[in-house]
Write a structure and sequence with these properties.
The protein is α/β, with parallel strands linked by helices. It has 2 domains: 351 residues, ABC transporter transmembrane region fold (Up-down Bundle); 232 residues, Rossmann fold. 62% of the residues lie in helices and 12% in strands. The protein is built from 19 helices and 14 strands. The strands form 4 sheets. It has a 6-stranded mixed β-sheet with strand order 8-11-12-6-13-14, with helices on both faces. The longest helix has 53 residues. The radius of gyration is 35 Å and the shape is elongated. The relative contact order is 0.08. The C terminus is likely disordered.
């Protein structure tokens, strides 16, 4: 079962990796990999030369040949300097490959995460923990370990093949006496001894360390949860300070860190058991080759130089055969991040290619001049019913107010019309000309005020400082016009009312045909609210406005009300006309009523 799981993870690892190695960067990636392989092959060659050097060096010591000893020291400095140069360059180009691969894979995941509001849907469904950590930390660990472990395995295999040939030629035939049953002669017995030693060590290592894979998986998740809780209090510092919630937050931090510490203690215990074995194997490996070679040396079948060459070759072969044993902790960490990235990719793929459900999904189409909703059913993420049979067709340039008690799904309906709520069925048509959803607390990115004002874009338009300042003046933020180039955390510096005013300034700059307002003036007084709605209703581009709000003062700025109070499933909400429409074009109301 464990072997099957590892095969599956290796398959997932290849699925994650191959997109880069077959991408537009494939030629530079393969070229860089080829260079790294060539350098590592050079290192193997240097190792072979040093193995042969040991025989000549120790033979010179044995016969007290000082001239040969000095000559061999010269060769040593040549081989050593070549090995150092190759090792340093191998590390440099390996790291270059890692960062190029990581950059490409990070951009891929970021694009998929941000496309079609995948980040929002993942948050709603809560099926993937800490996607930010998977993109930042897990991708880094995946690419780093893949390069390091992969090239280490390649070098081990090549070096193993080369030194097996050397060890076979040096070991000769081993004789094992069985008393009255005779003697068994084993050709290349040192090779078999190395294979047996490394095979047993690897088998026991995998048995001891296999529990580290799920522990490392949980380690990444718990670390991400703890870091997220720290970031959250930084982003909501004012609210926490206002409530005096430090003790509560401290309790959350302790709980999250206790998960980290408890899991880490489990890893410690497992690694301690693994460490006892691997370090014991390492100590035994220092003397084991001498034990198996010494009979031939004491039988005077080889000189000291040959003994040291055989020992060096044996240690090299044993070390390469024990590669999995030596790198097991890194391997299980790599398996853990591979599993996390595979799960992340799977969820992103589900969002990109949802299971066909015929008419059982919200169909959003483009066309027409306004917005139209037909027989729309909305569900919560767990599948329970929220709204049933909602229909409305506000004419172009009109304003519709969605009202109802708290919890009836007003904001959810607005999100569905805007295209960011995926749970439900029905048909929505969005007119051409662009749209903009203004939430209750607008998002203000860090950076300059000008960037915050034009976020995320204004239909490709560019504005002068005078135009941006004029927009701020229109919404009552004229005092900020001189700070357009100031970099600050504007989301914390501005009050909620100022943030909402800035959001309306974005609308004035972007001039979208459809404007969705979700409690967008809750932080303003009635005069400020009237001023901002007045701008929209008298705007020269005449946008269609759909609002959510509880204030009765909003009624006069709209042509009709969509009341969701009777939202009970299977009972359609009713569109109520206003008794005294405030606009001169009173015919808008009957049209909405008929809808």
């Amino acid at each position: 079962m464990i072997a099957k799981a590892k095969r599956s993870l290796l398959h997932e690892a290849w699925r994650i990796a191959k997109v880069y190695w077959t991408s537009e960067e494939k030629w530079s990636a393969w070229g860089l990999l080829g260079l790294i392989i060539a350098i590592n092959l050079g290192n193997v060659f240097v190792g072979i030369q040093l193995n042969q050097w040991q025989r000549a060096f120790y033979n010179a010591l044995q016969v007290f040949d000082s001239g040969e000893l000095l000559r061999q020291l010269g060769w040593f400095f040549l081989f050593a300097s070549s090995g150092v140069t190759l090792t340093v360059n191998a590390l440099y180009f390996n790291q270059m490959l890692q960062i190029r691969w990581r950059r490409w894979l990070t951009e891929k995941y970021l694009n998929q995460w941000l496309t079609n509001q995948a980040y929002y849907q993942l948050q709603l469904k809560s099926t993937i923990d800490n996607p930010d950590q998977r993109i930042s930390e897990d991708v880094q660990l995946f690419t780093t370990q893949a390069c390091t472990l992969g090239l280490g395995l390649f070098t081990s295999v090549v070096g193993l093949g080369s030194f097996l040939v050397i060890l076979w030629g040096l070991s000769g035939t081993g004789a094992i006496s069985l008393g009255k049953f005779g003697t068994i002669y084993i050709p290349g017995y040192l090779v078999w001894a190395a294979l047996l030693y490394a095979g047993v060590a690897t088998f026991i290592t995998t048995k001891i360390g296999r529990a580290l894979v799920p522990l490392n998986f949980r380690k990444q998740r718990f670390e991400g949860d703890f870091r997220f809780s720290l970031v959250r209090i930084r982003e909501n510092a004012e609210s926490v300070a206002s409530y005096g919630g430090e003790r509560v937050e401290l309790g959350v931090f302790k709980e999250r860190f206790n998960d980290v510490a408890d899991n880490f203690r489990r890893i410690m215990k497992r690694q301690m058991r693994l460490g006892w074995f691997t370090n014991s194997c390492g100590q035994v490996a220092l003397v084991f080759p001498y034990l198996v070679v010494s009979p031939r040396y004491f039988a005077k079948q080889m000189p000291l130089g040959s003994l040291m060459q055989v020992v060096n070759a044996f240690v090299y072969v044993s070390d390469r055969l024990s590669y999995i044993t030596n790198a097991y902790s890194d391997i299980v960490a790599w398996f853990a991040v591979t599993e996390r990235l595979a799960g992340f990719e799977e969820k992103l793929e589900e969002l990109r290619n949802p299971t066909p459900e015929g008419d059982h999904r919200i169909a959003i189409r483009r066309g027409g001049a306004s917005v139209s909703v037909d027989d729309l059913d909305l569900d919560l993420p767990d599948g329970s019913a929220l709204l049933r049979g909602v229909s409305c067709h506000p004419p172009m340039g009109s304003a519709l107010l969605i009202s109802g008690p708290t919890g009836t799904g007003k904001s959810t309906l607005l999100r569905a019309i805007a295209g960011i709520w995926p749970f439900g069925r029905g048909n929505i048509r969005i007119g051409e000309g662009g749209m903009l959803l203004v939430p209750q607390r607008p998002y203000l990115p860090q950076g300059t005020l000008a960037n915050a004002l034009t976020y995320p874009s204004t239909n490709g338009k560019s504005f002068t400082a005078a135009e941006l300042g004029a927009a701020l003046g229109e919404v009552g933020l004229g005092s900020y016009a001189s700070q357009l180039d100031v970099v600050d955390n504007w989301g914390q510096r501005m009050s909620l009312g100022e943030q909402q005013r800035l959001a309306f300034a974005r609308v004035l700059l972007a001039e979208p045909a459809l404007v969705f307002l979700d409690e967008a003036t809750s932080g303003l007084d009635e005069a400020g609210e009237a001023r901002l709605y007045g701008f929209l209703r008298s705007a020269p581009w005449q946008p269609t406005v759909v609002s959510v709000g509880h204030r009765s003062t909003l009624i006069k700025f709209h042509d009709a009300i969509l009341d969701l109070a009777p939202y009970i499933p299977l009972k359609k909400p009713v569109v109520l006309p206003l008794p005294n429409p405030p606009l001169e074009d009173a015919e808008l109301v009957p049209e909405l009523s008929r809808a």
